[in-house]
Specification:
There is one protein chain. The protein is α+β, with helices and mostly antiparallel strands and 505 residues long. Helices cover 44% and strands 15% of the residues. The chain contains eight helices and 14 strands. It has a five-stranded antiparallel β-sheet. The protein has a five-stranded mixed β-sheet with strand order 9-11-12-14-13, with helices on one face. Helix 6 packs across helix 7 and helix 7 runs antiparallel to helix 8. The longest helix is centred in the N-terminal third of the chain and has 50 residues. The N terminus is likely disordered.
């Protein structure tokens, strides 16, 4: 262990009183640790946040939106599919008639087309029936069904003056007859015995097809409206049933508030149980904080009891040194009050969590302060420089300050601090940081090592102190999930204090 050169600079604050075995208040490094607590103005409570939209409303809006989008998209796709199917059936009928026309057509001696057998549909014989046929070709006059009467269809195949040739059936819509939209199927063929390109055409009014399409669309609209309402009702019922565990949690919390129960024990679904577990953990944490607050209040009351007794006795006896006693004891009481106010704030800081403090930096700061108080001593620090603990810097300074100053005050003059020591009997814990504080004093008997952590216990009453030092170290370590134990130092022969604190993640 390397010796530390003693500083000749006088301490910047008076040496705090300590009891044997660890009962001094925290050492506060000048300029590096936390100083005396300042008075904190009570902040006005923040305004309660406005409640946001309920989960049921959000889930209902999402469900309604998806139902609308999916049904709208599916309805449009289905409507187009059925509409095309109706049109395909309509075109298939026209194609059948057109094929029958071509199969029945022949060339007469004059070069014109005639049917060697009549077409079977009687609508071709009724004027304006809505079903027509027409044959056009070359310079011949168009041949038309009686249903056309005095009208003639303008065929796309006839506009090219014989140059147009549709080997396959060609379908298209036409509005050439006012008030009667028609759909035409035409095909260009060359009949045996003729070199003329004949355009055969069959046309039918689309009124019947449009009526079928309208009926299909109406059925689809009503079907999807009913389906959408059914899905929406089902989604609302599902939301109500799915969120019922949250209402049970609310009732359980209300039961906690009204009956004073300590935990929520009602079995709940797997998705809600983690929330209940966290809530139970929060309740347990709050109870632990309340217990810590009661313990600190007891520590403070115990610390103030002796100074108040001294002042009362001095005043009753009309001690001529009353003013000196008042000054001395009130300073002691002020230190205790400041210390426990800092403890209360430490509990609040611990509730926030996620603090990170480098152990070596805190230990070096405490060493500089202790060297000013005990310039004749020797203090060495070794071990990991990268070890960090999940703890506020001010609280770690206080723990190390208590332990190191006690070792310097009650030891033989040598103090050795080791961070994450390499020990065959104590392998390094990946979750806990181990800190050893050793001295070369007389140590503490094994039978007294448990009792020394109690409030007010002092083994050496010849030196001033309050008996709170190690009790405070134990309390603060446990607040952060750590612990402290005492044993004999193998290297120095005195007391070895092992402090274990959770590592920062």
């Amino acid at each position: 262990m390397a010796s530390v050169t003693a500083s000749t600079t006088p301490p910047t604050h008076p040496a705090p009183e300590r009891a044997s075995g660890g009962d001094a208040p925290a050492v506060l490094p000048a300029g590096e640790g936390a100083g005396a607590p300042d008075s904190v103005a009570a902040a006005a409570p923040p305004a309660a946040p406005k409640p946001r939209a309920s989960l049921a409303r959000r889930m209902g809006l999402i469900a309604a939106g998806w139902i609308f989008v999916l049904l709208l998209g599916g309805g449009i796709a289905l409507e187009r599919t059925l509409t095309r199917q109706v049109e395909a059936n309509f075109d298939e009928q026209l194609d059948y008639i057109l094929t029958a026309m071509i199969a029945s057509a022949e060339i007469d001696p004059f070069g014109e087309v005639w049917f060697y057998r009549a077409l079977g549909d009687q609508r071709f014989l009724e004027p304006g029936s809505g079903l027509y046929w027409q044959i056009s070709g070359g310079d011949f006059e168009p041949i038309a069904s009686r249903s056309l009467w005095d009208r003639t269809m303008e065929l796309e195949g006839s506009r090219e003056k014989g140059e147009h040739f549709d080997a396959d059936v060609h379908f298209y819509n036409s509005a050439q007859f006012p008030g009667e939209p028609i759909r035409i199927a035409e095909r260009t063929v060359i009949l045996p015995g003729s070199e003329t390109r004949w355009t055969f055409a069959v046309a039918s009014a689309t009124e019947q097809m449009d009526a079928q399409i309208s009926r299909v669309r109406l059925i689809l609209i009503w079907s999807f409206v009913v389906l959408g309402l059914g899905l929406l009702v089902m989604a609302l019922l599902q939301i109500r049933y799915g969120l019922s565990p949250l209402r049970r949690v609310r009732a359980a919390i209300q039961n906690l508030r009204t009956t004073g129960a300590g935990r929520i024990t009602e079995p709940l679904p797997l998705e809600v149980q983690p929330l209940v577990d966290e809530l139970n953990a929060l309740i347990e944490h709050s109870e632990r904080q309340a217990e810590e607050a009661r313990r600190h209040a007891g520590n403070l009351a115990h610390a103030l009891k002796t100074p108040l007794t001294v002042l009362t006795n001095a005043a009753t006896a009309q001690d001529p040194k009353l003013s000196e006693a008042v000054f001395r004891e009130t300073r002691t009481m002020q230190r205790h009050v400041d210390h426990h106010l800092a403890r209360a704030r430490a509990v609040g800081r611990r509730a926030v969590g996620h603090a990170r403090t480098n152990v070596m930096a805190s230990a070096e700061a405490v060493r500089r302060a202790v060297e000013r108080l005990y310039p004749e001593g020797r203090l060495d620090i070794a071990g990991s420089r990268d070890a960090t603990v999940s703890m506020e810097r001010q609280d770690l300074d206080e723990l190390l300050g208590n332990l190191i100053e006690n070792a310097a005050k009650y030891g033989g003059g040598s103090v050795f601090v080791t961070i994450d020591p390499e020990d065959d009997d104590t392998p390094r814990d990946p979750k806990m940081c181990v800190i050893w504080v050793e001295d070369d004093g007389t140590g503490i008997p094994e039978a007294e090592r448990i009792r020394i952590f109690d409030r007010g216990v002092r083994l050496d009453t010849g030196k001033p102190g309050t008996g709170l030092g190690l009790a405070i170290v134990r309390d603060v370590a446990e607040i952060y999930g750590g612990n402290v134990t005492l044993r004999e130092s193998e290297d120095l022969g005195g007391l070895l204090v092992e402090l274990r604190l959770p590592r920062a993640e």
